[in-house]
């Protein structure tokens, strides 16, 4: 048998060398397979992590409603700027996709926006507004400037994040407060109120035909994209309440045609409210302005639930998402 000399090792036969090579190859194969297993495991972990990334949270505030007046009773108007600052500070500590204020940012006086806007703009994440009735409690000549002052290019709009569509509605569309007194829009609101025999208070409003058509198109798009939908408005529509939109039933009837709608979230009723109807969660957040104690929420979304973590007077809630019947 031929011998092969190696200066650093004992003399080995060719058979012994072949055996060593076979052992070495087996060890390398084992290491290779093991490495593939580890990589596959890590890849799986990455996939799980990516899936979890579809879960995210956002901040929600209702009725900051600031003005310089101390207010009477439960409304503490002049404290709201400090409450908002504390809320913004808390939100900036968290990993939130965005923050939304659900209307009545101010209580009155156009100059109140100059107090609140610099505070709200301290937020590190995108932040949005819904128009409320008190946001138009300014001089008639300034009503047209309110949306722009709040950073809005449109009174109603939508945006989309990770499979969720958010539709922001303007419940002041048909109203007495969003337009100068005796203007064409004001007169149209008066005719609407009389013609439809509205019993809901005049400080509420309605969503007009053009906006309803726009809403229907947006819901159709969301349905086709397999998105889940959350609707925002200042005014509630359900359960029955004196604060509800003048045409609440019309809006509910439209919503119920689209299984993609999972929630309708609003402010306006400072006491808060909640009800579930045909798979849609109707949530009214409590007003920040009331009492010396603040109120706001962080809302976390997942495939199965809408989890509300309340701060101050706001309640914690877990709102389960009903899955389509074919799944």
Walk me through what this model shows:
The chain has 327 residues and is of the alpha/beta class. The protein has 2 domains: 12-48; 56-320, Purple Acid Phosphatase, chain A, domain 2 (4-Layer Sandwich). Helices cover 31% and strands 20% of the residues. It has 7 helices and 14 strands. The protein has helices at 14-52, 80-91, 112-120, 146-149, 184-195, 209-224, 248-255, and strands at 3-4, 12-13, 56-61, 99-101, 127-129, 157-161, 164-168, 228-233, 261-266, 273-277, 280-284, 295-301, 305-312, 317-320. The chain has a 6-stranded mixed β-sheet, covered by helices on one side. A 6-stranded mixed β-sheet has the order 6-7-8-9-11-10, covered by helices on one side. Strands 1-2 form a two-stranded antiparallel ribbon. Helix 2 (80-91) runs parallel beside helix 3 (112-120). The longest helix has 39 residues, at 14-52. The protein is globular, with a radius of gyration of 29 Å. The model is unreliable at 1-52 (pLDDT under 50).
The name CATH uses for the topology of the largest domain is: Purple Acid Phosphatase, chain A, domain 2
**Cross-sheet strand order for the largest sheet:** 5-4-3-12-13-14
Instruction: Please summarize the sheet with the most strands.
Output: 6 strands, mixed
Shape: globular
């Amino acid at each position: 048998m031929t011998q092969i000399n190696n200066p650093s090792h004992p003399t080995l036969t060719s058979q012994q060398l072949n055996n060593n090579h076979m052992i070495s190859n087996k060890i390398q194969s084992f290491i290779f397979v093991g490495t593939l297993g580890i990589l596959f495991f890590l890849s799986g972990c990455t996939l799980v992590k990516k899936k979890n990334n579809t879960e995210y949270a956002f901040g929600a505030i209702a009725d900051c409603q600031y003005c310089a007046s101390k207010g009477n009773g439960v409304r503490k108007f002049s404290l709201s700027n400090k409450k908002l600052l504390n809320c913004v500070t808390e939100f900036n500590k968290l990993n939130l996709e965005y923050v939304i204020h659900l209307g009545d940012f101010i209580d009155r006086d156009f100059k109140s926006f100059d107090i609140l806007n610099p505070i709200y703009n301290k937020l590190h994440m995108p932040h949005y507004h819904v128009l409320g009735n008190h946001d138009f409690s300014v001089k008639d000549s300034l009503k047209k400037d309110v949306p722009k002052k709040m950073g809005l290019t449109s009174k109603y709009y939508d945006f989309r994040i990770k499979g969720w569509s958010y539709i922001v509605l303007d419940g002041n569309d048909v109203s007495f407060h969003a337009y100068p007194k005796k203007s064409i829009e004001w007169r149209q609101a008066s005719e609407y109120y009389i013609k439809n025999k509205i019993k809901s208070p005049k400080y509420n409003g309605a969503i007009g035909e053009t906006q309803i058509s726009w809403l229907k198109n947006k819901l159709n798009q969301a349905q086709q994209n397999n998105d889940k939908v959350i609707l925002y408005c200042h005014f509630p529509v359900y359960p029955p309440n004196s604060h509800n939109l003048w045409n609440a039933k019309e809006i509910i009837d439209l919503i119920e045609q689209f299984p993609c709608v999972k929630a309708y979230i609003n402010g306006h009723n400072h006491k808060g409210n909640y009800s579930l109807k045909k798979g849609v969660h109707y949530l009214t957040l409590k007003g920040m302005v009331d009492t010396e104690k603040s109120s706001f929420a962080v809302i976390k979304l997942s495939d199965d639930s809408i989890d509300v973590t309340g701060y101050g007077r706001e309640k914690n809630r877990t709102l389960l998402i009903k899955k389509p019947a074919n799944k």
